[in-house]
């Protein structure tokens, strides 16, 4: 039935609260660490629920109640599970033919969900300097999404939209092409893609420090590492786990990617 609450994840030791109650009817009683679902009704009244099956869903993902059990099926602790719709994380890069310099695409994007770790009174949204990323476009059938665009198509589209690259030289993926932003609560994976672009064919994007979502730059590799070390520059905060992890994986493949780029250049 469409109205049924889905099981949170594939793992056997991740179950719904109702299943945890079956294994231990007293599990949620008197536990100070229970997750509580609070709902504010239209009349202003707030209702609280503990130990119930719940989910919050949207076109972009879902959050579901979940209880972790031990190997014998005994409930241990509860923690919601976050799921995202299919998406890509892209390391877009280019090589200066004359100098051999490697440049990586960094976009500056506001992330209003993040609190300011330095100034708790700051009410302005924080801006992060990060790699391109985004959801795959849905391919609609008669009434609903039947499939999503391919990983390659999504990576090319995001690279063009977010960095202005108009010519793609090569596209590849690491041997293990999946990327999890934080498996402590995120269940789904992103597709990780390396996209080599022609640095001479970058369309000028709208560039305005006051509107950082429109800012994209191909930054020298050495400068990227300096900015990550600094943690924050005028481009934005560089401490984003998804972006930093993807860049680290890219670095481990750098020699292979550069060699392939040079061989392709020599064959032309």
Give me a quick take on this structure.
By secondary structure, the chain is an alpha+beta fold. It has two domains: 14-83, no CATH class; 85-267, Nucleoside Triphosphate Pyrophosphohydrolase.
What labels would you give this structure?
8-stranded mixed beta sheet; single chain; 2 domains; 3-stranded antiparallel beta sheet; alpha+beta; elongated; 268 residues; Nucleoside Triphosphate Pyrophosphohydrolase
Task: Tell me what the structure shows.
- With 268 residues, the protein is of the alpha+beta class.
- The model has no long low-confidence stretch (mean pLDDT 92).
- A hairpin with a 2-residue loop joins strand 4 (55-58) and strand 5 (61-64).
- The chain is elongated.
- It is built from four helices and 20 strands.
- The strands form six sheets. Strands 9, 10, 11, 12, 15, 16, 17 and 18 form an eight-stranded mixed sheet that branches.
- It folds into two domains: 14-83, no CATH class; 85-267, Nucleoside Triphosphate Pyrophosphohydrolase (Alpha-Beta Complex), CATH 3.90.79.10.
- The longest helix is centred in the C-terminal third of the chain and has 27 residues, at 241-267.
